[in-house]
Amino acid sequence: MSRAETPRRGSRTSRAGIRDVAAAAGVSITTVSDALNGKGRLPDATRRHVREVADRLGYRPSAAARTLRTGKSGLIGLTVTTYGDEPFTFTEFAYFAEMARAATSAALARGYALVILPATSRHDVWSNVALDGTVVIDPSDHDPVVSELVRQGLPVVSDGRPAGSLPVTAWVDNDHEAAVLGILDHLAAAGARRIGLLTGTSTDTYTNLSTTAYLNWCERVGQDPVYEAYPAHDPCAGAVAADRLLARPDRPDAVYGLFDPNGTDLLAAARRYGLRVPDDLLLVCCSESSVYANTEPPITTLSLKPRRIGTAVVQLLIDAIEGVESDQPVEQVIPTELIVRTSSQRRQARPIVSPPRSPGQG
Amino acid sequence: MSRAETPRRGSRTSRAGIRDVAAAAGVSITTVSDALNGKGRLPDATRRHVREVADRLGYRPSAAARTLRTGKSGLIGLTVTTYGDEPFTFTEFAYFAEMARAATSAALARGYALVILPATSRHDVWSNVALDGTVVIDPSDHDPVVSELVRQGLPVVSDGRPAGSLPVTAWVDNDHEAAVLGILDHLAAAGARRIGLLTGTSTDTYTNLSTTAYLNWCERVGQDPVYEAYPAHDPCAGAVAADRLLARPDRPDAVYGLFDPNGTDLLAAARRYGLRVPDDLLLVCCSESSVYANTEPPITTLSLKPRRIGTAVVQLLIDAIEGVESDQPVEQVIPTELIVRTSSQRRQARPIVSPPRSPGQG
DNA sequence: CGCTGTGTTGCGAGCGCTCCCGTCCCTCTC
DNA sequence: GAGAGGGACGGGAGCGCTCGCAACACAGCG
User: Fold this and answer.
1) CATH topology of domain B18-61
2) Which residue of A has its CA nearest to B68?
3) What pLDDT digit, counting tens, does each position of A173-206 carry?
4) Which residues, in sequence order, are CB contacts of B285 under 8 Å at separation 6+?
5) Using CB atoms, which residue from A60, A118, A289 is nearest to B152?
6) In chain A, whose CA is at the least distance from the CA of B61?
7) Interchain pair A67, B66: CB under 8 A
């Protein structure tokens, strides 16, 4: 009672605090807090009254104070690994954008928001934001950021299975081997005799697994591997690599490109060499872009289902944040989808119903 | 001295606090704070010592506490308006992704991070995160979120000039009228006699300004407007609208498409009608996508320079957060760039050097 | 009339920092 | 040798909220 009644320093400046609401409603701070958060056992009348006063004053609780007190910020980090000099690609490929969007929606639906953070960054940025957990896209081997986060006891869920022995809480990924094998079989079934691969020089798991799957398949069916690798983060290098691939003496009659822009790259290269698609060259690439539905010809694409992945990743993370700490990593595999278009089908397949030569079955 | 020496409750659990560092370094909490933040006047020896102890203990300052105390969170909201049912497009068009990426980098460089937030959202999500300011992409007329933020005294900078009388702190935009006029002139110079427009049904300023500019231009040069509008958020509607446009009895011999996918849409439609590009139909669309460099033929695009916009928006916002509150809105216009490719040039323009008929010069 | 039960409400102690000051002590000056 | 000056550090009050627990009112019961 001593000086509690005086309206504090600047008083009439800035936004209303919980104190002001309490005073205006004639109740205690605790009651306001309880009323607004649906806690405690207050009669509905009180609750309503407080709520009413609160939004008459335009009261908004201070997120900082709440976070400090409760230890939960409702913030989830979204991290993309750096490519080359650019802070992160994020958009070079529609995949990231789609994934991020789905993740954002999923987080929002559960009351969380996403904070975009670069994987390689000085500590100060990371420690300037109170995170409840982090989503890491495509973590690199022994990622220092991930280790640090885990050390701090924050749950980390990765999109893409972690390389090495990264101690992530959970991960979500596609079955890249199965996807590649499926495509190769698809191409072979369409009549391909020598299937080439356009791949990357980086060492992330996606590239690794896909390339390995290709090599294994080649060995199994007895085909010599025909592939070109290029730094995937360089948009120009793709066109060059596509050109190289089709310029080879052992030119493939079908190509699978691992990266989003490869479709147009390969199409352009094919034109340069006078190759008709799909007649002389079958084409498939991994992409989320809808432009391939309208290219000439439309190109068969493999979708990694970024939306499902983004959603799954966030669900797992929030489960880990809120729920019981499951002791072993949770792993989730999302199926891919092959969207078959003209580029991977021999014209109508009328004349010859069965593929010309099916290389080694099983 | 009563119980200050006891190491607090759980003590050995959780992360080290500033208290632990102080104790371990044999200095006061204040000294630790000052040493770590480069404030106060401490000898370098002390500063080094404290820093060393701090990271021996793996100390990370609590962002929540700092935010609560200082009132600055280092967090900037990034908001996209909702289209249709989808939370927000964000990625439908490469523009948003590019812009968001540039904004992220710019923010990071100044020690801020971006929080992705939907424009239409219940208060609870917004008030759950302590924002220092907000970037709003394409704010709609009388956007309630913007008003609310401004009412709270937060600076708001918009990408796209605010419709109505939205009280934003600053905005960045392209000169859409000039851009459209430039394209129309470009097409006319390439020999177009009847230029069509593929536009949107929504009422955002981009669509509005662009369409109006088109109509004005038509009136000025005495051409009957030929356009089709469709809901831009629907990816399928674009192809249909493109088709409609080319099916018209007064079929245009050149088309400008306002939205990213329009290039492929129009190209596909042209093929359906047996129109050769650019011989029978000149094509330009507004897009940030690089696929148009490799289509058949490559398509001329207008770039809105999302990177520059994203950067500018963030700079203005952070200036507003940190610097002097400038009393009137700051406005910044970013020039567009027309990337001329085959689709908007008559074949080599050799036979006829000057355009067949230049409609009304100035 | 005291005692327990039930239903409401408030006290007060922090969450982990930052920052305004005050204190202490050492050095310099006249 | 005393006072002034200034460099080095620490005390302590919060920032605005949440939450365990205590307090209080009022009923019924023995």
Assistant:
1) 434 Repressor (Amino-terminal Domain) (1.10.260)
2) A64
3) 999 999 999 999 999 999 999 999 999 998 888 8
4) B198, B256, B257, B258, B259, B260, B262, B263, B266, B292, B299, B300, B301, B302
5) A60
6) A127
7) no
